[in-house]
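User: Show me an example of a complex going from sequences to structure tokens.

Assistant: Sure. Here are the input components:
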Amino acid sequence: MTGALVLRNVRPWGADATDVLMADGAIVGIAPGLDAGEAPQLDGGGALLVPSLVDAHMHLDKTLWGQPWQAHRAGPSREARIAADLEMRLLMQDSIAERAGALVCQAISMGTGHIRSHVDVEPELGLKHVDALLAVREAFADRIDIQLIAFPQFGLITNPGTAAVMAGALDAGVEVVGGIDPSSIDGDRAGQLDTVFGLADKKAAMIDIHLHEMGDEGALSMEMICERTRALGMAGRVAISHAFCLGSVDAARRGRLINALAEAGVAIITYAPGASPVPPVKDLHKAGVIVAVGSDGVRDTWTPYGNADMLARAMMLAYRSGFRRDVDIELALRVVAEGGAQVLGLAAHELKAGSPADLMAVPAETVAEAVCCHPAERLVLKGGRVIFDSLLSNPPVPSLSLNE
Amino acid sequence: MTGALVLRNVRPWGADATDVLMADGAIVGIAPGLDAGEAPQLDGGGALLVPSLVDAHMHLDKTLWGQPWQAHRAGPSREARIAADLEMRLLMQDSIAERAGALVCQAISMGTGHIRSHVDVEPELGLKHVDALLAVREAFADRIDIQLIAFPQFGLITNPGTAAVMAGALDAGVEVVGGIDPSSIDGDRAGQLDTVFGLADKKAAMIDIHLHEMGDEGALSMEMICERTRALGMAGRVAISHAFCLGSVDAARRGRLINALAEAGVAIITYAPGASPVPPVKDLHKAGVIVAVGSDGVRDTWTPYGNADMLARAMMLAYRSGFRRDVDIELALRVVAEGGAQVLGLAAHELKAGSPADLMAVPAETVAEAVCCHPAERLVLKGGRVIFDSLLSNPPVPSLSLNE
């Protein structure tokens, strides 16, 4: 065993205190009073232990994290935000690694172990954003896993040449094919979706499509995504992000959509929006649809909110869903950790022997308390190694910086 | 001048750095490079300065703050939560001062200078909760102002004898007459409202009515509240809390309701709910309706959420309202500080000479950043005296306790 460590006196998902033995980057065993031989020991002080959290929807290339405050400059519509994005990107593309790196540090310090990030691609940009985020991924590889999505923010059919750049992104190491509002952005549902699914099929990639479309418009797009997923046998490899339409159609239509998602094996990723409809997490979960959660934009050209804390995001999801009972609030965190792991295709991401020793401990009695209070103090382990600690150290270790 | 203090290098509402001279509990002057004579000086380090925040809707007697985590035990409806409340109250009434005191300490440490709290009254309880909160108010009088509302949580018309206890509460020092859902709880709009307004008129008290009723039901109640406010000349002394109906009627009806509120001088208090409609803050503000913000329940028998931080609550209001631009996000904090002061009837609560020196400083460049990030570090002054400091002291001063 190399790099062995035993973390004593922690409470997995709020259960009774136990010990976790780690070695070779993985969990070796979990039991009270474990004989850990010569392994170094750490007393967790009864903190609540969960697997490291999964942020299943970020836009690392757009963040302004670590920069001076910048007033939001876009108009009130989504189209205005896309236009502002286009205007900003030339000013911002030289600092992608710096800005994204600062946000990745913040995410690590909050206990996020896995990020799935969209990255803008289109002909004029080429792979500039992709290359920057591939470098960030490399720089932080020992502390966090980053999965990337080639994202046609500025349209796919309406922006010719984008599909070729997306293919290039996949060849360069991007794992997921993105899409966005095939009807309202591209005005060509079949055209965009056939391109997206064709590319994913050819490159054995996953799919993650932004769907802001509301009501019937979104429902039709969702149905077509489910159809293509079934036809290509891509169950478990396709996700729809946002899915506002699930909260803006009537109950009968919503029920049919949920069944279609379950049958096709299409997952839903939400950021718990403030002013758009939140997908019905409990109904989706009950129907067997995998639900994951992401930050979406974190203090960027799209939104001034967010701090990459997925415990706080779980609180927002629970609060927006009207959850009050502990069991429901716990579901909000389960989908963050476990749903996120499923969407990202992680083979094992549980608190048991054999899973990677990617862990987060937080001072709370119950999972519900951890979510509702989301205390700032965290102990974060990656591959069995403490990589951030503001819980046990006093004073806390300094913040992560890009240069360490 | 007694108790003079000069706070240097702070930025009022994010403006350029300046100095604030305080004496005799009030602001004496605000200007850069103030000559403060022999007065002690404090360097604010460029922190953003706002008036102390107003929490315009709490339930101090119901909180479980400072207690071990307690799983939410009520069923999913409002009626179930009222029933659970009835069941809990006998177990909890001996610890009101302890629980409420713990929450008041937390509120002070977050920069709240004024609380308006509902307190349950009904025949069986008598004034037990009122007496406990009057004692809490007295104990914290030098650090926070607490205004109380005699709240008929368990019905007024349907729970005979309640009005008499409410009258007794007013005689004991409670300032505001409460009410709740005159149609859905009491089934007698005119009956409840006539009792509430009659009592307030007789005792020269203010009015604050919980209105959860949705759609038409709530709109009718709101119209009747406006009518009575006009008839009795009570403009500026009546508030409606929650007002979910404003977000659940069509645009034309909403416009008429907003005009009625503005004409009658009836204020709206919101807690930025997660799963119920949020009142349209910008439309209300534009029409001249005073808007204030409160925590509502903080980790209590009704809800597991909240931490009495009105900066975080302003963030929730802005997030739920879809605000992205700095000017809109600043409005969310303006209604917390200024709208709250107006609803509570505070004569002066601004950053200018003559106002009480009730201040809060927080590390942020702009008001929007203070709201979006709501940093935990705060410097809190009441009557020109530093009563909490986790901003300038390092390490922070210990948390407030009941016994100091």
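The lines above are the inputs; the final block is the predicted structure for all two components together. Residues 396-404 of chain A have pLDDT under 50 and may be disordered.
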